Amino acid sequence: MIFNSLEYILFLPLVFVLFYWFRHKFRVFILLAASYYFYISWNPVFILLIILSTLIDYGAGLLLEKTSSNSTRRLLLGISICANLGFLFFFKYFNFALENVNEVMLAVKGSYQPIEAWDIILPVGISFYTFQTMSYTIDVYNGKIKAEKNLPYFALYVCFFPQLVAGPIERYNNLLPQFKEKAQLVIQNISHGGRLILYGLFMKMVIADNLGVFVDSVYGDIAGASSLNLLIGSVFYSFQIYCDFHGYTTIAIGSAKLFNVNLSENFRTPYLSNSITEFWRNWHITLTTWFRDYIYYPLGGNRGTLLKWVLAILTVFVVSGIWHGAKWTFIFWGFFHALFVLFEKIVRWDKPSTNVFLKAIKWGVTFTLVTALWVFFRSPDMDTATLYFKSIASNWDIEGIDLPVEPFILLGLFVVSDILTRKKNFSLSLDNIPFVGRGAIYFVLIFLLLSRSATDINPFIYFQF
Amino acid sequence: MKIVKYITTRIILAVVFLFAMNLLYLYTFWKEDVKQHGDILENLWGVDMHSDAIYFGESSNFHVQEGDSIKHRISYALDSLLPNISIATVDNAGLHAGTYLSLMKNIPKEMNLKFVVITLNYRSFAANWRYAPFENYLSKSALMLEPSLPILNKYMISLKQYDYQSDEDRNAQMKLAWRNEKFKIPNFEYTNVIEWDSAMAWHTWLDVNPNLTEENLPLASHYIKNFAFNIDTIHNERIEDLNAIVSISNKRGYKLVFNFLGENTIEAEKLVGKELIYLMEKNRSFLVNYFTEKGVVMVDNFYQIPDSCFVDRSWPTEHYNYQGKKIVAENIKKAIEANELHY
């Protein structure tokens, strides 16, 4: 069940009614059942994986709290992390590792018989809920939080359906206490939740999916596309992935709001950033902060030697690339981001500037770099990415520039709305607008959603991670 | 109470908004969307409102043989054979009962039709048409033509509320149907398409049938895949759609004519054998009897088209040269006159 489906449009109000119909003590079971059902609708078998992961981390948390011996505590943490990363490695990286082992062995031994890849299906959302549960165990180990004793609440923390398959990656401290608070049926939550769902659907179905049609056509024939179309394609992809993922997150936040749960913001107009460093403060915030807290800081952050700091930055970004997928293109994408961040720190490019001209140049350079690096992200392999850049440089003689007018207009509309909602999210921004103005905005958004949503089949991009 | 009032006012506003949006949509994007997702409706819009009849057809209606001096459609030939009535044409490639049903629902109620001709293609009952990748497009078109608010139809398309399936899934369903949809032919060992086709593919018949060669073996295989089936009156969606067409026609008072297209039974028998003809005849007589009993005028061209009239020689189709198309038109004319539908 995806957010932009009729099933979800029916599922969400049903869960909402049931949730408020029952007394507080039963609501955790309503949300838990709904979340499991939501996940089962993808693939029934993998619910067992979530349950297993839940039980391992729940047990590890309780035992960590009871045990004072450091070696036992380290062992418990190790078991929990190995189990979580083990699942992730097997489902996501096993074949990638196998493929690379085969290539190395073939290079070393010419007569080597390559091992065939296994037929492994990637469970939806595994990268997200695994990171969420790992943060819990690490925080319990570090004494930052108390272990959760109530299994249903803990299970709901792992699988709360609005953020189960693509985040935001929530910390225990932010999410679980909200489940325990008695939710009141308040108009404000319904209205804010509804607005966010509407805006999220608009971003996904009207903007991202329509841009995606053009992007797919360009990537479908890179060698035959003109340089201008390739450039437009790369800019469109920047906004496609942003609207796709931001749209998903906004629907998730809106859906959670209906149950009186506030999920973390994941995006703060990242494309207005003046440096790559700033971009990462505003893009996929919950993942970036996860890497900061659980990899960058433990590796010493910026408090050690220069070499240690460089290694910490490189590690975080390369791991971030690998987290997105088992492909060299993702690793390169992460690696180049690391290089740019290091460069910015060294030349102090990320230092805030008041000069408008300088800010504009910094913005232009940042947006260009981010857009160029998305080419690696979008390409199925390194050869395609290389071909893309080569074709941009060489295809100026190809005629037949196909300017997609409607996507440009829709994109313009989105950029304006994104800038206007820079300081407050879309829903809060609407609070200051009079009733008639709000009505007009709803009218335009709903009209565009109903009439201009793309018709091609486009799953959310981040579901594959 | 406050919440109930809040939700109720929003629902009422939403309904008002919806109708206003629908109106705006009709004046802005609708026609362009119909062109993209349901272009067949454009054909129907082009129909003269004073027409006495509509001919619904697929590629058999307009396909032309290279070198044909007369390139008229079957429906145009019929129109000229019946000078006192005007017959409008609505056709497109790959259409079948499901699409005709959607179109029937969209015939303007103001039209005073004497009769409607529906093209009935034997192959359209076979698994490889029922599960063809083209079905995605037809199913999307059918949703676009639903008699609901057009803006909602468009959004339902975006929500994939039509029978969308990947090519791989449709292929798998087709193969499953070839295996599971059994038929029984007296004194014949094969009971499904897979068994029969495999025997053909493995060349075991080359020695038995002198008409078979390495070159025409693929065509023989196509004949089996397209013509060897047993119509399941409960599960075959074409029957369901045709029944719905009959019911709409009865409701609206249209006389219904099914133009049952002719097949190249001579070639089929030559390449595959009399067993295939046995099945085809069984299905033919079932369809003719079944719909005649329902009051439909059946124009049975099944064995009427000579081998020389079939245009395609490497794939079994119902594409005829003009001579073949004229035979069909004349048969329809005779049936219309015999049943006095033109008065």
Q: Main traits of this protein?
A:
heterodimer; A: 465 residues; mainly alpha; 19 helices; B: 343 residues; alpha/beta; Rossmann fold; 2 domains; 5-stranded parallel beta sheet; 52% helix
Write the layout of secondary structure elements.
The complex is a heterodimer of chains A (465) and B (343).
Chain A (H helix, E strand, L loop, with lengths): L5 H16 L2 H17 L6 H20 L3 H39 L17 H16 L9 H9 L1 H4 L7 H9 L6 H34 L6 H31 L18 H7 L2 H12 L9 H19 L3 H20 L8 H23 L3 H13 L10 H16 L5 H6 L3 H18 L13
Chain B lengths: L1 H26 L2 H8 L2 H6 L7 E5 L1 H4 L11 H8 L5 E5 L5 H9 L9 E6 L6 H4 L4 H10 L5 H9 L8 H14 L12 H9 L15 H11 L9 H16 L2 E6 L4 H7 L2 H20 L3 E4 L21 H17 L5
Parallel strand pairs in B: 1-2, 1-3, 3-4, 4-5
Helix pairs in contact in B: 5-16, 6-8, 6-13, 11-12, 14-15
Give a structural overview.
The complex is a heterodimer of chains A (about 475) and B (about 350). With about 475 residues, chain A is mostly helical. Chain A has two domains: about 5-185, no CATH class; about 190-275 and about 350-465, no CATH class. Chain A has helices spanning about 5-20, 25-40, 45-65, 70-110, 125-140, 150-160, 160-165, 170-180, 185-220, 225-255, 275-280, 285-295, 305-325, 330-345, 355-380, 380-395, 405-420, 425-430, 435-450. In chain A, α4 (about 70-110) packs antiparallel against α5 (about 125-140). Chain B is α/β, with parallel strands linked by helices and about 350 residues long. Chain B has two domains: about 1-35 and about 135-165; about 40-125 and about 180-340, SGNH hydrolase (Rossmann fold), CATH 3.40.50.1110. In chain B, about 50% of the residues lie in helices and about 10% in strands. Chain B is built from 16 helices and five strands. Chain B has a five-stranded parallel sheet with strand order 2-1-3-4-5, with helices on both faces. Chains A and B meet through α9 and α19 of A and α1, α2 and α9 of B.
